[in-house]
Amino acid sequence: MTSTTLRPYSAVFRARFQLLLQYRAAAFAGFATQCWWGTIRVMVFTAFLSGPVASPMTLRETMDYIWLGQALLMMLPWSADPELSRMVRSGDVAYERLRPLETYSYWYARAIARRTATPLLRAIPMVLMASVLLPSLGLAKWGLSAPAGFGAAAMFALSLVFVVALAGAFSTMLDLLVVASLSERGVNIIVAPLSIVFSGSLIPLPLLPDWLQPLMRNQPFAGLLDTPLRIYSGHLAGWAALFAIARQAFWAAALIGLGRAIEGRVMRRLQTQGG
Predict the structure, then answer these.
(1) Which of 1, 139, 208, 237 lies at a CB distance of 3.0 to 4.6 Å from 134, suitable for a disulfide?
(2) Has this prediction a pTM greater than 0.70?
(3) Half-sphere exposure of residue 95: CA atoms within 13 angstroms, side-chain side
(4) Neighbour count for residue 6 (Cβ, 10 Å)
């Protein structure tokens, strides 16, 4: 696409991003909840990993995994776009066919804004709390440490780019499924636990049984949290980190391609309800 072609979608992204940044009270409430949940997880994993136990991750790596996971939690595709779900229920989704824009790219731009603006409001205070406040209180052992090195920081930043691309692809796929099924309830019920478990948000994926590791490494949800968190702490380094980033890029491209194919079919058979 040329810059002229991309201009409408970048405008959609900016407008949606600025709108979502206004929900600061909700972000503060979510930040407080995530601090509480993160503290509980820190205590649980400290109890398990402090003693002489064989573990694929050190306590330090696990602490970084927990706090960064809390900071980036809202990047997970928990649910479909609530505004689009309302449009499906009311029948206003039919107007989407009248826009002089490609539907998939338009929805993808909105999804990217949603998966960056909302997490940003919580990620900044979460990182400051875990990396500055906790060490200043003498709790550095249970806080967030610096990246494992310059190389880890650079690859972590690159991995975050593909996290956004992958999260946007997931979110757009959910929106398409809502349009196809005419309801967001089933989609949201199914995707929320899948995102929490398979991304590593509940339990770091390396701590799961060995026989599950091949599946956990190669499934798409791992690219949303597990990959960047392990790169940050140095648990993934060198070629292993590059291969993990390549998997993120593969799944982002695959889901975007699949989403475009589904979008064409869904929008040709669009049904509306409400009135």
Answers:
(1) 139
(2) yes
(3) 7
(4) 13
